[in-house]
Amino acid sequence: xxxxxVPPKRPRMLALHGDTLVDHYFWMRERDNPEVIAHLEAENxxxxxxxxxxVALRKHLYDEMRSRMKEDDESAAERYGTFEYYTxxxxxxxxxxxxxxxxxxxxxxxxxxxxxxxxxxxxxxxGVFLPTYDGRxxxxxxxxxxxxxxxxxxxxxxxxxxLDQFIPNTYYGAAWSNDGQHLFYTTLDDARRPHRVYRHVxxxxxxxxxxxxxxxxxxxxxxxxxxxxxxYILITSHSNTTSEVRVIPADAPQSTPRTLLPRRHRIExxxxxxxxxxxxxxxxxxxxxxxxxxxxxxxxxxxxxxxIPHRSDVMIEQIDLFANHMVAHQRAHAQERLEIIDLxxxxxxxxTFPEQxxxxxxxxxxxxxxxxxxxxxxxxxxHMMSLTQPRTIYDYDMDTRTLTLVxxxxxxxxxxxxxxxxxxxxxxxxxxxxxxxxxxxxxxxxPAPLLLYGYGSYGATADPRFSIERISxxxxxxxxAIAHVxxxxxxxxxxxxxxxxxxxRNTFTDFIAxxxxxxxxxxTIPERLAIVGRSAGGLLVGAVTTMRPDLMRCxxxxxxxxxxxxxxxxxxxxxxxxxxxxxxxxxxxxxxxxMKSYSPYDNTTPHAYPALLATAGLHDPRVQYWEPAKWVxxxxxxxxxxxxxxxxxxxxxxxxxxxxxxxxxxxTAFEYAFILDQLGIVSEAQP
Length: 687
Known about the structure:
The protein is an alpha+beta fold. It folds into 3 domains: 12-66 and 413-678, Alpha/Beta hydrolase fold, catalytic domain (Rossmann fold, 3-Layer(aba) Sandwich), CATH 3.40.50; 123-308, 7 Propeller (Methylamine Dehydrogenase, Chain H); 313-409. The protein contains 12 helices and 38 strands. The strands form 8 sheets. The protein has an 8-stranded mixed beta sheet with strand order 31-32-34-33-35-36-37-38, with helices on both faces. Strand 12 and strand 13 (194-201) form a beta hairpin. The chain is globular.
């Protein structure tokens, strides 16, 4: 094996709470230091040298995955106003092209070719894609390096010209006024927190834009949206535990924002509009959330009327309001369902599916808009998929209660009859039952190589989604499983609360319990077990690696949050302050000690560790590149065996990795080749 880069050790000592933190690689934070860039480039060369013997396998995997991709494809059209909007992909092009056509017409109009925007660039991502309701103007924003800092542009769709005005330093989210002349947008502070809302008048100089609202509390972010009714622009201030919404009438964009329900600590709510009421999805007196409403002109706590009561066994995750219906997205017993309420008759019915493991409404990573843009409709567009079934799009008529197939993803050469998925349950040390979603070929021989995935943070669910790339693993006899650990939202809000802050270790021990269950039940053995996690899921697999290095053969930690204490001590790092309510504040001695007890970087001590591939993005604003870089350096320094420890940094990308669809296939092929190589399947190039 070639020699790994050996970065210099420059101890930085920090005394806190009677403890001393020693960080030999703190200097890697110096992003503009040529020595840092040279080290990351040396790590990339070393990784490529170690993986050189997998070049043929990687190419085969890439070609195989690409062959399952329908390269010339068209999305299901979404109506907004008098137009239908859709995207099309073409063979050989990395990005989709956005089109529209007038309702009832076959004449299409090209709106935005992202391939042209990306020409000559290693990274291109669209943040905002927002036409006016009358279709005269388009606002769109572009990130060219993965930093999630966007420049906002305007296009006159009548003439096809890009307006001279553009606005830098913007974030996701924007909202048009109903006259199509005012656009509201957010900007970022030095910590890349969306903290201000501005109003831009089309045709004016952006330097004259009016500051509408500024969020001064560093724990809060701002987001913008327009109610589906198009009556109000919503300015939402939110932390990880608290929210507050202000509204501006979309017909009176120069109005002063009005606060709906003032913020109260640990009270969360989202606001929605229908007719003469604001509807609120809130956790006040409702751990799993409930729905209440109040008159538009009299929004006070004492006027709140309950619409959907709280249930201890059902989590309400989201609501959608239409002219005559409400759709409540619910989760019970780790399964999703939809509850539909007729707002005229108050009659309620549920939409469920017979599959044991499935997920509803996962949107394509490259989608420029979410579905269900129209308000005055009885049709709800529904996306469904499972571990074995590709995405299927239905239109559900909420009056007649009928499903109509709109589009099913075509996967060339794929037959779902060859695969099986099921739901298993492991038991954690404290007796808690932890769900596992699993998929494998029906002809697999056990014990088999197994890839176990987990996330378990922010109340986000690791839903069982279909993947064309994953077929390449399944067809080589690899079982894929998802550990739905505490810290996620699979079993309601209590599931999340029991895996955060001073309960965070439950996330890691749940994952270990799932791995041990799969081994005990004969699905796999430690020598054939791989684990993978991304971002906060990278923290999960990092913590499991330091807690139980004997449990698995190899680890893939994508953009992993592994330097927990150092990061949370520095509020100048993007996102740190708002994260105090997720992980804790190390300025508090008890929380400092708890975080340090599981932080992978601080718990990397001499052991025989599994093989590791860690990834990073140089421009990542969510998990800074130096976290995996430092961890890799420390692991190599202290490990007592010769298993490879590799770092692969995307020098032109951020948290989500490469932006182009073919580039992402190359990235996946690389990671799969690492896993297959470590699990001893590298010789089995053909499935």
